Amino acid sequence: MARRLSRSSxxxxxAPVRIVHLGLGNFFRAHQAWYTEVASDADGWAIAAFTxxxxxxxxxxxxxxxxxxxxxxxxxxxxxxxxxxVVATHSGADVQRLLDxxxxxxxxxxxxxxxxxxxxxxxxxxxxxESEGVQADVAAIRSGDLAGVKTAPGKFVAGLLNRRAAGxxxxxxxxxxxxxxxxxxxxxxxxxxxxxxxxxxNEWIDANxxxxxxxxxxxxxxxxxxxxxxxxxxxxxxxxxxVGTEPFTQWVLSGEFKAGRPxxxxxxxxxxxxxxxxxxxxxxMLNGSHSLLAYAGPILGxxxxxxxxxxxxxxxxxxxxxxxxxxxxxxxxxxxxDYRQALTDRxxxxxIKHLLAQIAADGSQKVPIRIVPALTAxxxxxxxxxxxxxxxxxxxxxxxxxxxxxxxxxxDDVRPxxxxxxEESVAKVCDYLxxxxxxxxxxxxxxxTGLEASAV
Length: 456
Hints:
Elements lengths: L6 H4 L6 E6 L3 H5 L1 H7 L7 E5 L7 H6 L4 E7 L2 E7 L2 E5 L4 H8 L6 E4 L19 H11 L9 H15 L4 E5 L6 H16 L2 H9 E3 L1 E5 L7 H11 L7 E3 L4 E5 L15 E2 L4 H24 L5 H5 L2 H15 L6 H15 L8 H4 L3 H8 L1 H9 L5 H14 L11 H4 L7 H12 L4 H16 L3
Parallel strand pairs: 1-2, 1-6, 2-5, 3-10, 6-7, 7-8, 11-12
Antiparallel strand pairs: 3-4, 9-11
């Protein structure tokens, strides 16, 4: 008979909540929660997690007292791990509960996986003070209604105001989104927001708040019925909150944790002085090739990373992109070659069903940072970065309705780029990405024409 997970039956006492996480999703549960679970001092740390816009998996986890099964899907089969580091799950709309956590002296770290759009930044990278959400949150805080905020920056600042009022002491923000310099990103929007509601808060932040920068890496597709069925068949556990992930995992961190942290390094996390080279390696090599496959793969009839990477044509295009990226990464050739081989092995794991349509979301924010820097650097050096320009071509066709459906936080801005003739679309996309080089623009048009002709 199938059983459900519970702390009482599994003998898993809850540790004190010392970490609050915003963005209760699959990646967080496969990554940060896992690192906290396997830390050598895990019995002293626990996480309270808040959902994003929807309740998501929070209800299923709450019914299991925060427990869930992590399915590590290796090429040779599955490994099952029950994760107990999350002890409470809440709706993202329950801001008062978030404020209560901020007021506790035990809280030491605030982590987040809310995607770049969730930090409400403007074109310069600072807080978008003109957005309706930010303005509404500013008005709520000024009126004394801290629990009335809805944006992530508003919640962060409301939480800090509540913490300062409670005399609860220091903490550290540790964002885990795939954004370069994500610690600096959070610090900037927090300080910008604080300046709008209480300039004196920034002085308190100077003394009491740390901002860590991180690079995260673990491919975690959306769970499927097959994942649930495998857990049930192999373990006898009926777990609607299970999540599947790959064996590979990497977490590189830099920054000061003012109120302490778990011994994440005991689970393999790396703490470094300069995180930038690791960010570039992952952002360009893994995320960049993901974008290429996500836009080109569906045009050629592929649905998953495994299917796409198993296609000789698409695999060749990935390697062309990697050739471009490798020429401009500030790391030694051996490190790049090893990472490249590891990526090939990971992409060819048949048990990871990573949907290309899922990866294709929010290209307006991904292509500019994953592809454009290497493309422009290679053109400036006199190169011909075909591998990079093909990604731009594939994204152009994606905006024109080919391949995966458009799902973008800036859809209203980028959908018009796909309108008109193909030549007009390429010109608009290149303008949007700041690609002024005539040879690059001509190459993108040629590659888009060829890819469009190959569509299935």
